[in-house]
Amino acid sequence: MPSSQWTEWPTREALSRVGVPRVRIALDIAVLASMAAWAVSSAYASGAFHGWRAMLPALGLLCCTAAVLGYHQTTLANRMLPSLGLLAAVAAVGAGSYAAGADVPSAVLWISASVMAMERLPLAPGLVTGVVMVSFFALIQDSSALGAGITMASVLLGGYSLRLDAQARSAGFRLLAQERAAREAEATSAALAERARIAREIHDVLAHSLSAQLVHLEAARLQIERGPEGPFREQILERVVAARVMAREGLAETRQALSALRGEMAPVEDYLRELGVADGAETEVTGERRQLTAEASQAVRRVAQEALTNARKHAPGAKVRMLLVYEDGEVALEVRDSGAAGQAGELGTSGSRYGLLGMRERAELLGGTLEAGSEGEGFVVRLRVPA
Question: What is the per-residue DSSP string for 365-380?
Answer without folding.
Answer: HTT-EEEEEEETTEEE
